[in-house]
Every structure is written in structure tokens, then in C-alpha cells.
Amino acid sequence: MTVALGxxxxxxxxxxxxxGGFGYLVGRARPIELGPITTLAVMVLVPGVVxxxxxxxxxxxxxxxxxxxxxxxxxxxVGALTLLAARAIGWRGVSRNALLMGAxxxxxxxxxxxxxxxxxxxxxxxxxxxxxxxxxISTHTLxxxxxxxxxxxxxxxxxQLLRLPITYAMLGGVxxxxxxxxxxxxxxxxxxxLANGSVAVLLLLLGLxxxxxxxxxxxxxxxxxxxxxxxxxxPIAWLTGRLVGLEGMPLAxxxxxxxxxxxxxxxxxxxxxxxxxxxxxATVVLSTLAxxxxxxxxxxxxx
Length: 303
Known about the structure:
mainly alpha, 13 helices, 0% strand
């Protein structure tokens, strides 16, 4: 079991750290303007991976509905806990919203999908993909709203959401999936290529951002968000999973997905809307490193 878990983490967490490390080294070696890269990711790459995930999600509608409800309850419960924590330390406005960005959104894609496959095989991967598709909706609607709302009102945040391609990529992906329509081969290849390339670009972008980051400046907030993401979210996921009727492998996969570190894309939205991006980026790094331990323990409990 120990060897299997070691292999799983070597093939999931280590590549993530390695790719981000390449970006970090480049960012330390020479100054790079992040604005154009961030814009490319926001306007093209992230919509591509979201459309692909939602369009290709292949699960019974009953199970997919329970996963959607599970994600919604999970976000609500973890969000409420994070707001209480922010109030306890006196954080409001931008700092509160950055803490939410760091705590709410798990990396159920590049980390969670691989863990689902390693731990439970192809059946686990299918369930993990369904949970990821459901989580994608919250990350790219609520996540954008929280990031944009950090420096603007609710109306301005909603207008930002409606102007972004990601909104229409989500609607298109859900529509394709619900209709059962098979994507034409050229369009299917385009969505797959964008989906495959987006993870690497996002990780490189994270590394570039970290090259400018003084981790000590954000240690307090990053530690708090990481504790909520890795320690509080999994038991909440188990409780909410039982509440919506998940059991067996679907419940185990959902808990595992909910226990993954902070999503890289959370740092992207924080950068895009200037919602204290250094705090969110620091949380991504700290939670990814700490998840080597917490996910090992979680897997031992679930397997």
C-alpha cells in the first residue's frame, strides 16, 4: 500500500510541482510581463478545458445530479466556515475574498482525476470526472464573482462574469452533454487540445507569479486557507455526501476530490481581478505541498 501510494503521488503531485518550478525558475531568471499570459488563459485556455470537461462527462444523470448537489453543499459549508474564520481574524473586503478563493476551490482536475484513477481504477476516474465537471461550474461562476467582487460591487461582478468566454463555454458544455450530441471531429480535437494544454500553462503561470512572491508576507492567510481546504473540507464532504445519498465508491471519490489542494485556476482569477493574488498563489503552493501528507492519510482511510 505504501509503495502504491508513493507511486500515485510521484505521478500526480510531483509533476505539478515540477512544471510550476519551471515557471518559477524562468520568472527568477528574467522579468516577464504576466498580463498577456493571464489574458490568453482567461479568454481561451480555461474556457477550452471547462467546455471539454462538461461536454464529455459520462455518468448516469441520477449520480451526476447527486454529485452536483454534493458540490453545492460542499461549497456552501466550506464558504460559511471560511467567512467565520475571516471575521475572527478581522479580514474584510479584498482579504476576505482572497481567503475564500484559497479555501473554496479544490484542484479536482489535474490532481483529483489522477488520484481517482490510481485509487479506484477506470470506474473511479469516471466518477472523479463527474465531480470535477460539477466543481468546474462553481469555480468558474462563484469563483469569478468572488474575485471580481473583491474590488467592485455585485452588479459589476455579474457584468464581468457575463463578459467572459468561460460563461458561454459552461453553457455550451452542459448543452452538448444534455442533448447527447457528438461533437464534430474538428471541434472535438480543438477542445481536447485546449484542455490538455491549459493545465501546463496555468502551472507555468503560477510559477511565474511565485517568482515575485515573498511567501512570508502571506504565511498567515495561506496557512489558514490551507487548513480549511485540506483539514476541514474532507469531513464536511463526507457528511454532505451521506446527506445527498452518496455511498461506497462514489462517496469515497467525492471525499477524495474535495480534499485536494487549492485549484491553480483560483490564483488565475485572483490575478485577473487583482484580488490579493499573492495570498491565493501562496495558498496554492502551501496546500499542494501539504496535501502530500493529508491525501496520503485520506487515501488510507478511504481505500
